[in-house]
């Protein structure tokens, strides 16, 4: 394939990727209000639990301080949703563009990662939505104070719609990226840049690095950092097992090839 053919192929991949993204954006914007309400559900459930315990109306109120704030939030929801839906398609288009120049062994290494990367990202988002959000939100709203003591003022939780979305996205992005760890390390082992023995030797250093990464990716509170670091430690141990399996298969294949 000559240079002109490569450019034509690249243009074709870019055009269909952009069209796919625009279609996903329109779809997500149509359902943007429902998507935002879905993201609000963990916070709403905490309010309902407090209603049952106190017998009072403890529902939280979200506010918007700018005239266009809610509209911009729905645009953000649509944009981020479109990226999430389009990412597997984008990755596949990139692979289809570079695949003709790859060796068969390289293709076999990349295809499992291409398939697993979106699954691992969604899995990370699911963990933070169903397990981390209820604990984290319960902790954060516990700082409310009714001002019952003399000489004090009440502290009331009234987040803005944009601040809540930004916090949710930060958590989901952090966990989605963290859950890529097994796939990335296994891929590096598959192409021969890493082996499971190196992961075992560097375990102590990796633990420190994991907590540093968790501190960077999450909001500046200890609960969020530990909430991300613990799953990453588990994923690191899972990566060691996966890399050990890949290395054994590669060694067996090399022995068979040598004979």
Rounded radius of gyration (Å): 23 Å
- Name the average pLDDT: 85
| Helix and strand run | HHHHHHHHH
User: Which class best fits the helix and strand makeup?
Assistant: mainly alpha
Protein name: Sec-independent protein translocase protein TatC
InterPro entries: TatC (IPR002033)
GO molecular function: proton motive force dependent protein transmembrane transporter activity
GO biological process, one term: protein transport by the Tat complex
List the keywords.
single chain; 259 residues; mainly alpha; flat
Summarize the helices and strands and which ones pair or pack.
Blueprint (H helix, E strand, L loop, with lengths): L2 H28 L1 H23 L14 H30 L5 H38 L19 H18 L2 H10 L5 H6 L1 H15 L4 H37 L1
Helix pairs in contact: 1-3, 2-3, 2-4, 3-4, 4-5, 4-6, 5-9, 6-9, 8-9
Question: Can you tell me about this structure?
Answer:
The protein is mainly alpha-helical and 259 residues long. It has one domain (3-254). It is 79% helix and 0% strand. The protein has nine helices and no strands. The chain has helices at 3-30, 32-54, 69-98, 104-141, 161-178, 181-190, 196-201, 203-217, 222-258. α2 packs across α3. The radius of gyration is 23 Å and the shape is flat. The two termini are 36 Å apart. The mean pLDDT is 85.
């Amino acid at each position: 394939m000559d240079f002109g053919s490569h450019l034509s192929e690249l243009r074709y991949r870019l055009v269909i990727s952009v069209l796919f993204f625009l279609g996903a954006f329109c779809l997500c914007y149509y359902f943007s209000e429902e998507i935002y309400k879905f993201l609000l559900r963990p916070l709403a459930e905490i309010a309902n639990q407090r209603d049952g315990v106190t017998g009072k109306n403890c529902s939280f109120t979200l506010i918007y301080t700018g005239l266009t704030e809610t509209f911009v939030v729905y645009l953000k929801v649509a944009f981020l949703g479109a990226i999430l839906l389009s990412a597997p398609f984008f990755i596949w288009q990139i692979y289809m563009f570079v695949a003709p120049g790859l060796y068969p062994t390289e293709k076999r290494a990349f295809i499992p990662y291409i398939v697993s990367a979106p699954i691992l990202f969604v899995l990370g988002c699911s963990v933070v939505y169903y397990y981390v959000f209820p604990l984290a939100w319960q902790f954060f709203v516990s700082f409310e104070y009714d001002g019952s003591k003399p000489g004090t003022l009440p502290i009331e939780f009234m987040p803005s719609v944009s601040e809540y979305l930004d916090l949710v996205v930060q958590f989901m992005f952090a966990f989605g990226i963290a859950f890529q760890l097994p796939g990335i390390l296994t891929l590096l082992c598959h192409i021969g840049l890493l082996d499971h023995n190196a992961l075992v030797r560097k375990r102590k250093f990796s633990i420190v690095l994991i907590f540093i990464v968790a501190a960077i990716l999450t909001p500046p509170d200890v609960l969020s950092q530990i909430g991300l670091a613990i799953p990453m430690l588990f994923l690191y141990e899972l990566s060691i097992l996966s890399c050990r399996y890949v290395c054994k298969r590669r060694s067996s294949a090399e022995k068979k090839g040598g004979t």
